[in-house]
Design brief:
Order of helices and strands of chain B: HHHEEEEEEEEEEHHH
CATH architecture of chain A: Up-down Bundle
Strand order of the largest sheet of chain A: 1-2
CATH topology of chain A: Cytochrome C Oxidase, Chain A
Strand order of the largest sheet of chain B: 3-2-1-5-8
Largest sheet of chain A: 2 strands, antiparallel
Number of helices of chain A: 16
Number of strands of chain B: 10
CATH topology of the largest domain in chain B: Immunoglobulin-like
CATH architecture of the largest domain in chain B: Sandwich
Helix content of chain A: 55-70%
Structural class of chain A: mainly alpha
Number of domains of chain B: 2
Shape of chain B: elongated
Radius of gyration of chain A: 24 Å
Number of domains of chain A: 1
CATH superfamily of chain A: Cytochrome c oxidase-like, subunit I domain
Largest sheet of chain B: 5 strands, mixed
Number of helices of chain B: 6
Distance between the termini of chain A: 22 Å
Radius of gyration of chain B: 27 Å
Oligomer: heterodimer
Largest interface: A-B, 114 and 101 residues
Amino acid sequence: MVEHEDEQSDDENHEPTSFLTKYVWSQDHKVIAVQYSLTAIAIGLVALVLSWLMRMQLGFPGALEFIDEDAYYQYATMHGMIMVIYLLTAIFLGGFGNYLIPLMVGARDMVFPYLNMLSYWVYLLAVIVLTASFFVPGGPTGAGWTLYPPQSILQGTPGYEWGIILMLTSLVIFIVAFTMGGLNYVTTILQARARGMTLMRMPLTVWGIFIATFMGLLAFPALFVSGVMLLLDRVIGTSFFVPEIISLGDPLAYGGGSPLLFQHLFWFFGHPEVYIVALPAFGIVSDLLSVHARKNIFGYRMMVWALLAIGVLSFIVWAHHMYVSGMDPAFGFFFAITTLIIAVPTAIKVYNWVLTLWRADIHMTVPMLFSLSFILTFVFGGLTGLFLGNVVVDVPLSDTYFVVAHFHMVMGVAPIMIVFGAIYHWYPKITGRMLHGAMGQIHFWVTFLGTYAIYFPMHYLGFVGVPRRYYSYDEIDFIPESAHDLNAAITVAALIVGAAQLLFLYNVFWSLRKGEKAPANPWKATSLEWQTPQTPPAHGNWGKELPVVHRWAYDYSVPGAEEDYLPQNMPRQPFEKSGAHDPHDDKPVTDLQESDK
Amino acid sequence: MVFAIVLVLLVIITVLFTFFSPWWFTPLASNWGSIDDALIITFAITGFVFVAVTLFMALAIFKFHHKEGRKAAFEPENKKLENWLIAVTSLGIVGMLAPGLVVWADYVNPPSNAAIFETVGQQWSWNFRLPGKDGKLGRAAVQFVNYDNPLGVDPNDPVGQDDLIIEGGEMHLPIDQPVKVYLRSLDVLHDFYVPQFRAKMDMVPGMVTFFWFTPTRTGEFEILCAELCGIGHSQMRGIVIVEQVEEYQTWLSEQVTFAEMMPPTEEAESGDATVGESNVAGEGTDG
């Protein structure tokens, strides 16, 4: 079943030999993926610490004296931006996208390896510029991660001197990096698939990453232009987003700009961004569930169409972030309808995940635990999204802790669960070692129960009406004393959950040396990345000959088969009735050879 | 197995917490009970889905966790089931959306008998303006703002002369009188937020936004800012006092008009101020 070519690098592989070209200036997608992931995790740790500090101020106001208003808003802003852009977007696309796309579609590498390398180094530059803002006079920007003008570029907001300039510059650089990577991922998926790997045979992981990348290529330009325009407003005094105003008593030279224009541009990017993070997670969880439940993903074709539908619809829902922004309220009707329609394809995905579990053979491995907990948190966060999408229901809840709880559940906890699940799942392929199981179990339970303890009760603070982005809740009459106690409890939970992540990091580094040696295919999975001749895969991935694909990625527990999985590169077996092995594409592989290289 | 039990426990805790925790809506003080109702409908439908999906998952894990000799079924898809699920989901969506949109239509259409007032936000305080006897607010713009004219009322607009300027962050409203609020900001984004009224709206520099409500309960209610507006955001407070009409009239009679506030020499200065592109903020309204 596995291609038994040996590992000699043929001439076309151009395998790098020096340490520098192999691990630093590497053009190998697998090395770049690890570089992307480690950088994302490193900057994510900064954001984690910032969240601790914020929670300390909220739970135990004044306990840490160095947290003043400036610091609090700076922590909140940097935490949000780092988590959404520099951690989640980078790790799903730059990390998992890079590692998995060529291996899952049966390619030797990305189609533009040099561009791929450049993408990482430009991303690193964006992270460095962002980090530099902690060290400039005035510190990083405290404008909130949405960076709404005029506030973000005016006195009265921390970091208006340099922080905001560095933030916008870093975002612009990030988008350059993303575009180089993104074009690469899309082209590779469209052009470099192995023979027999039709689009409808691709694992859903690849589909999720593919559509998310495509969306990123369409959405990030909106952030790019708004970032450049805001930079111009701040640095050379244009008035794209700033009307005639008086700032702290002084009239400013601005005039005629529109603050709402920025919000439209920001959310035209910002809403698809939610799905840019979510779709790779959707794809990965589908594959993880299928592998660890030993059952094909239920309704594969519907899953692909749902991904596409979500991708398209997510571009016409952005103003549900702006129901009370002052835009023409008539828009509320349109955006409420589109927003709730998007719940249908999303619900299909949830149904198909849980239906995959029905009559399955569920192995409760650590990746499976994370996948199952993803379903719970995603369902929770998706359903609370319906409150906020349902226009008038959003009115009392907007800018309260309900919103904070909702988006952390749906695009914080849920995708992070999948980041973890995916790392536990693919770590054996990446490193050749298994992660330590008991540590993984502890990490899972603390993270799962802890995050639920943080965000579930937080929704109820939102029902009370507690506003978000408040440095202090002193002397606000309507907030009951018990809410402060709840805040303290949430802080304790957050500190514990944060600490559990350190255990995870310890596990990752400990297992690198001391972990149990991993077999080539420890989970008995069908997709191509598990069928490489070496583990970890060598440069060029496949030895002398590329794999040939004969079936979809979900032939688990096929009736009549001895093993409960049939790898994608296994030719049709005598016990398989015509077409039964691959209900969605039963063209014999010979038909496909003509059109493939 | 353990996971299935934990899922069931989480569902139980979630339901119990909803009914028995002390944290729930702050008591309503406006006409927007319909918003609370729309929220409850949404809560009921989504809550049911959450419980159903989670329990189904728990049951699946309970029944089909790995045992020696277990083999999964091979079932790629089931068109009929998928179509049913889509239909039921769409129905649930309509069930939430329809009442929501009806209330929204109400929210964006202030009643014709609504009184009006204006609130003006700036870092980090609230000021207010009431129309005078003519029932109309005079024109206002940032360019007219100065020490004597904190809200930027156009000194040359006759409609604005009898407007009542209310500084100090305390506003009074008569009970049971629908009121349409015009919102302006002199500097950055703010949001007029009284939790007990449910309704809220952003204040955007360069434009006038609005919303409406009817206060239905007397008392003092805090105004908070619900749109991040800089380091003083959490300290930006005001007060709305809802009272009986007679008390309100007494309070009203103590307020000063714009004309009374302006020093007599103002005429000349305002001439300069009107030069340049006008940035019309507040206009007379049809009330």
